[in-house]
Predict the 3D structure of the following.
Amino acid sequence: MALLWLTRQPDFTSFTTIYIDDVIFLNHASFESVGILAPHYGYLNTLPRSTAAFAAAMPQAYAPIVISVATAFVTFAGMVAILGSRNQHIRC
């Protein structure tokens, strides 16, 4: 299903699009001296800030790709952590 969605609009994928939330943290990492532990509107966003800091170290054209891959990796890691532990209490 995800592959069909990516082929539906080949010019506008996650690898060519960057969203406003990502731009805020990317701007903080690139041009302002805001640390990873700085709050943003009262919230501590360490994961988006560290992802943006890593993307800011790359060339600017690769920022959407770096952020998309990092987001997919974090989502997959969370899924493995949640689903991997659900079968430990079931014994056959």
Observations:
- The chain has four helices and two strands.
